[in-house]
Amino acid sequence: MRPRLKSDVLYVPTGDGVHVFGAGADIALRGRSAYQWLDRLAPHLDGSVDLDDLVGRLPDDKRQVVHALVGQLHAAGCLVDAAEDLPHRLTRRELETYASEIAFIEYHGDSAARRFETYRDSEIVVVGAGPVFVSLICSALRSGVRHLRAVSTEEAVTNTERLAELTAEAAARDTQQAFIHLPCEEGELEGLVAQAGAVIHLADGAGVDRFLRLDALCRENDTLLVQGLVVDDVAWLGPAGADWRSAWPRLDARGPFRRNAFLTGPAAAVVASHLGLAAFTALTGIAGTTEAADTARTVTRIDLETLRTSTHTFLPHPTAAPARPETREEFTRRIERLGATAALDEDAFSRRAARCFDPYVGVLRDLDEREFTQVPLHVTEAVPRVAGAAPVHGAGTSFATARREAALRGLASYAARCPDVRRYGPGGTVWGWAPDERRAEVVAACRVFATDHEVGVAARLSWDDAVADGLAQHCVRLALRDAAQGRSRLRPVRLRPDALATEEARLLDLLSASRGSIEVADIGEALGVPVLAWWQGGRLAAATCGEAAVVAGLRAVLLGRQAVMTGEAAYAPAPWAQLGAPVAGDESAELPVPAGPGRMVEALRSRGARPHVVPLDHDPAVHEVLPFVVRVVIADGAGEGPRGAERRAEGRGDA
């Protein structure tokens, strides 16, 4: 072992030993002579001497003390074994000139000199104009790049006098550096990218086309790309590599963009330093170990007026990966896997869903309680980042339940509006799963990804629950039509507290405490499955079906009552079609046994409606977060289109 103490390690004596800190370590070494030993050893811990040679002339007891001390420092990360470093060809002058860069690398990884040599030997191309362009050139030259090509674009005026000064400074400091300044020409740029080890580029809104073109060129040539985009008065920087293909569509910035007035002076230097550091850490191989790299997919946002800087995590975008239509066999196997996938527990979903939220690049832009009153129910709002999607709300008797329900609704709303047309089959179709016949059939994609309503869209923590929820929504729709047209009787239902589950009873108590009235009736007679309609103050407040019908109904009624009491209409349940409440005095029945998915499918089939389950998985990253997002659509046995099938199903039924 050839121990080398890291350059940023410091030590101070204490009453009973020595305190060592730096390089991410903070340890206390006990012993009255610990400080003296370390202070004597430190000048020799430079990696040039083997430890056995260093202590060879010491008595055995003192040799053991030194070995123990070095072992403790090594275990704490305060020193490294220089014998394990990869060889390098840097000269002593290079080691001295770029000692701070090498020390930075050493803090994050081994073989610091070899890693720096890799960076130094990489040909770097800087593309841009204006103050940031000049600052990038300055950063690259001072960080030790041996071969630098600077390609000027025409978006801004570049200070050529400052470039001449930088060239002279580089020549005096490092005679091996070669710096060439070129105008931007398309054909020449392609050749430079093909030869480069890395390309660093910054563009404003006017340079978006070049921004995308460079991304394509670097992917074709397997060249590292580090670039930033200035959108109005905000700079978006990184990530290094191919992840820009995801960051840009996740950002979803739309022009026209105005020219910013703040990208000068310190702001230009800050932006350049971020881009330069990203290239440096990527080329030296320490990008995944720096403190800023908590995740591989982050983008840095800099407000150019205030220089406020933040990092934002994003998910891979579907367009960043190839996609094609599935075969029937592939889809069938995937449905089988989904059906066999274990349900997510609530904590696991919360951890996964956190990756979806970001105000700028998230699938869901926000998850917040705003100023909503949080009694009797907790209420949370989620905001999907997709055209046509309105904020959605979750409610529950606990904070966690409200946030979970809002996240589920938000992911469902997003998934229902984000098709990947590359996955469409002939005629604009996708595969749907017929649960009763257990086979895949073609479904019109325009019906699955419809935006006029979300009937049949469901997101739950298990596959079976999601399918059941989607089926239940169609049963509710048909039962309401039956009741409105007089095909179904309204059979009043009693809610006896002693017959309710714990959560159901709690919701009923909260409704009573809120002075809310409630009437419940089963309107599913013609359909053949229980469908509960809920009235409050003579107005239909909810209609529910399935295993969770009572909880869902009580929660919706209570949420509506809360919205009225507080005047907070934002989260009030959507109004339902008018349906007269059951006549007072009619004999009430006990709560019916809820229908499971099998009974609901049978009921729909009895009306000539054939349900198909379509996984809403066209965004694979979101599907990985929550695999159980589906849309249940309806077609009939004769192969009629889904809209016609729904009309026919509504028209059938015995009076």
Largest sheet: 8 strands, mixed
Low-confidence stretches: 290-295, 637-642
| Overall pLDDT metric | 91
Specify the number of helices. 22
Count of distinct strands? 25
Beta-strand portion reads 15-25%
CATH-defined fold name of the largest domain:
Rossmann fold
CATH superfamily of the largest domain: NAD(P)-binding Rossmann-like Domain
| End-to-end Cα distance | 90 Å
What strand order characterises the main sheet? 8-7-6-9-10-11-12-13
Indicate the radius of gyration in whole angstroms.
Answer: 33 Å
> What is the level-2 CATH architecture name of the largest domain?
3-Layer(aba) Sandwich
* Share in helix: 25-40%
What does this structure look like?
The structure is a single chain. The protein has 655 residues and is of the alpha+beta class. It has four domains: 3-84, Outer Surface Protein A, domain 3 (Alpha-Beta Complex), CATH 3.90.930.70; 122-314, NAD(P)-binding Rossmann-like Domain (Rossmann fold, 3-Layer(aba) Sandwich); 328-462 and 608-639, no CATH class; 473-598, no CATH class. Helices cover 39% and strands 20% of the residues. The protein has an eight-stranded mixed beta sheet with strand order 8-7-6-9-10-11-12-13, sandwiched between helices. It has a four-stranded antiparallel beta sheet with strand order 20-21-22-23. The chain has a three-stranded antiparallel beta sheet with strand order 2-3-4, with helices on one face. β17 (429-434) and β18 (439-444) form a beta hairpin. α7 (130-142) runs parallel beside α8 and α18 runs parallel beside α19. The chain is elongated.
